[in-house]
Design brief:
The chain has about 350 residues and is of the alpha/beta class. It is about 50% helix and about 15% strand. The two termini are about 40 Å apart.
Length: about 350
């Protein structure tokens, strides 16, 4: 890429209690191979740990690093605060739970300049340092864990309906009035608006490499996907015609299962074999977990495991946690989707 045509870039990183990660993330961007990073805006949602102290220290050492405050602690609000403050030609969204290739920014810009896309990014590659986290990372390799999303496929190149994180022209983002101030799923909602203006708006390149560290505990994973379910419902309300079935499938599937079990209880004289179906479902989930683990076993230490070499999770632990994660994701997503549906339809609370 010629130096003369390198557009300036503003990197925006929403944070909340990221004291363990923020220095490495910001340091990685400071060492980026892309020479025209204008600023790194860390937008903090009132962290209770030392995140803001560490960012303030970095901003003292490096003029590119700037600390902004997000009093609402909502990620979409943080991104809009960053958008309002950014000075770069390009707005690059980053996440503090990730590790980025040294050429991440350069590859994003290159892809944006050489495709017809409005928003570009790379696949969400899952990695882990803990045992439960490894189960989450492995579940992302299953159709039951990723829903067939193309942004979870590291080998995929092409136009899609949404992308992990994102890199776009600042003016474009301003023209569509930034991110929607909803709880989560603000990226997919934004991409739906971009797709209305350009059918080829979203592009994934396998050359853009970023590694994501998922939640480390069951409860934090459940809360995350509960929020995803809420956000997905809000997106489906705004874009009724274009929303993908993938976003509604967990709610529809779990709803059907609950209805089936409820019908069986009310009409016990009709044997619907719900107990057998439940057992069969468990067997199917853990059989899928075994398939994924055996498929990824050879590359686990190279592609997934980033923790201690002395205490990696055994195949049994990986199989068990992966199965638990595969079961958790649709239930948590269903719970959040159903909760938001109840708030909107019955309590008439929009949460926009």
């Amino acid at each position: 890429m010629s130096v003369s045509i390198k557009p300036s870039v503003s990197i925006v990183i929403p944070t909340y209690n990221e004291e363990e990660n923020i220095e490495a993330v910001v340091g990685g961007f400071l060492a980026s191979s892309y020479s025209n990073i204008l600023e790194i805006l860390v937008v903090d949602g009132n962290s209770s740990d030392s995140t803001t102290i560490k960012v303030a220290e970095l901003s003292y050492l490096y003029s590119k690093v700037k600390l902004l405050h997000n009093p609402f602690r909502i990620q979409s609000t943080a991104l809009n605060i960053g958008l309002e403050a950014c000075q770069g030609d390009i707005f690059l969204r980053a996440d503090a739970h990730c590790q980025y290739a040294t050429d991440y920014v350069e590859k994003c810009i290159q892809t944006l300049l050489t495709t017809n896309a409005t928003n570009v990014g790379g696949a969400q590659r899952f990695v882990a340092t803990g045992k439960f986290q490894a189960g989450v990372a492995l579940a992302a390799n299953s159709l039951l864990g990723n829903g067939g999303a193309k942004y979870r496929n590291p080998q995929y190149n092409g136009y899609v309906d949404t992308v992990f994180l994102g890199c776009m022209w600042t003016k474009t983002l301003i023209d569509v009035r930034g991110y929607s101030n909803q709880i989560t799923n603000e990226d997919a909602e934004l991409n739906q608006r971009l797709l209305k203006k350009n059918d080829d708006a979203i592009y994934i390149s396998s050359d853009i490499k970023v590694w994501y560290y998922p939640r480390q505990t069951w409860i934090s994973l459940y809360i995350q996907y509960f929020k995803y379910g809420r956000g997905r419902f809000l997106t489906s309300i705004k874009h009724k015609k274009n929303i993908q079935l993938r976003g509604k499938l967990p709610f529809l599937f779990v709803s059907c299962m609950i209805a089936l079990f409820g019908f069986d209880l009310l009409f016990s004289q009709i044997n619907l074999h719900t107990q057998e179906l439940f057992i069969l479902g468990l067997v199917a989930v853990f059989a899928e977990s075994l398939r994924v683990n055996l498929k990824c076993n050879g590359d686990f230490y190279k592609e997934v495991w980033r923790g201690s070499e002395d205490s990696p999770p055994s195949l049994f632990i990986r199989w068990l946690t992966c199965g638990i994660v595969i079961m958790t994701l649709p239930v948590a997503h269903f719970s959040g989707y159903g909760y938001q549906l109840f708030r909107n339809k019955f309590l008439k609370i929009s949460d926009w």
